[in-house]
Amino acid sequence: PTAHIGVTGLAVMGSNLARNFARHGHTVAVHNRTTARTKALVDEHGHEGAFVPAETAEEFVAALQKPRRIIVMVKAGEATDAVIDEFAPLLDEGDMIVDGGNAHFLDTRRREKALREKGIHFVGTGISGGEEGALNGPAIMPGGSVESYKALGPLLESIAAKAPDGSPCCTHIGPDAAGHFVKMVHNGIEYADMQLIAEAYDLLRRVAGHSPARIAEIFRSWNTGRLDSYLIEITAEVLAHTDAATGAPFVDIVADEAEQKGTGRWTVQSALDLGVPVSGIAEAVFARSVSGHRDLRRAASALPGPRREALSPAEAEEFAARVEAALYASKVVSYAQGWNMIGAASAEYGWDIDLGAVSAIWRGGCIIRAAFLDRIRAAFAADPQLPTLLADEDFADEVGTAQDAWRSVVSTAVAHGVPTPGFSAALAYYDALRADRLPAALTQGQRDFFGAHTYRRTDRAGSFHTLWSGDRDEEQTG
Ligand code: 2AM
Hints:
Helix 8 (about 180-205) packs across helix 12 (about 265-275) and helix 15 packs across helix 18. The strands form 2 sheets. This protein has a 7-stranded mixed beta sheet with strand order 3-2-1-4-5-6-7, sandwiched between helices. Strands 8-9-10 form a 3-stranded antiparallel beta sheet. Helices cover about 55% and strands about 10% of the residues. By secondary structure, it is an alpha/beta fold. The longest helix is centred in the C-terminal third of the chain and has 37 residues, at about 315-350. It binds adenosine-2'-monophosphate.
């Protein structure tokens, strides 16, 4: 056998990944359920490197050097289980099945456990960067055993994106499903980033009265500062684009109903289970679903809103700077929440994830790649036990400086009737965390009143219950 690695599932992501390996000098066995795809890949791109096309699973496995490394790039869900069931009986102890799809991390846990019992390494691996990234360098987030990473790491690192400092955007995230979990949160953060950018655009358009072309320029200027990122860059491109058929700004001819494939929803569902507030991501997922409820929007379209004039040109200029601050502060909060979620899962599942390493590998290749991620890496380098990004001195300073602008943008949005659930939720979270006292004390009182759920006191240890329906004496219950 000659192949260093194999890829099965040769739709665009799988084909591009196989080509990426071949272009980096690895011999790649390629296989697909429908053999026409395998043939097409080798016909079109065979000259890019060494491919070993295989028609059957047996041929594919026989082409691989041991320990065998098989990357599965099929549709997440039943197809993944079907492929595992097909290949597992053909493999030997120590071989590796790498699932590069967007699997739910609980499926990955189940599959890893089942294959581990057969002596096979199952490596759930997050791969971010879309089709382009798969070909030219994605961010790669492998889970699975430390042993499997020894055999896979060098190959994966060779095809991964490189961060600005030259280091590969690939690291062993942690055991079993740690890689797929972290990829899921990456996508959740991506939802939040996109929502915050959308809110900034909406404010610049509807409150400041700027045209899409002018807003594109504003985003371009933001992209030279602390917001420098792939998403801000493509936002400017999309806003500057004109529809060829009508000559209208492209954003004005696109139906305003956002779709989703589900990783954002998974992030929020998992956050609820872990008890971690990720309000930024949740608002982003809900904002997409609000946009998609055409029936509700039509039914409510006659409801009154505030009567407000757009800002004067001078006010509009100043407003743009405040929106930048609000966007930045909200982004810091949403990343703080995302990192808390990764930390909570790491503790819950015993993954021991290096939180700084996660930010380091997101500096390149993936959709949320940004200069900003190097700041998060630095914050965890300074304090690996950092409880929240908001406690990092530099981030705290910046958010503190931004807060006046942030508050004024949220109040202006409310006054003008422009929804900013992302900015508002982020600000509410910031104010909740820094509050000396929260009204949760009252909530506890209510719970004790109607359900005898007991409460703790600020001045004494133990749990207490007040006899609400009797003489209102207090008894200690624990
Ligand atoms: P196909 O070309 O034979 O349809 C994306 O759909 C990729 O997943 C394709 O390569 C597709 O193979 C593969 N795929 C989908 N369902 C599959 C299954 N049950 N078994 C094997 N491959 C599957």
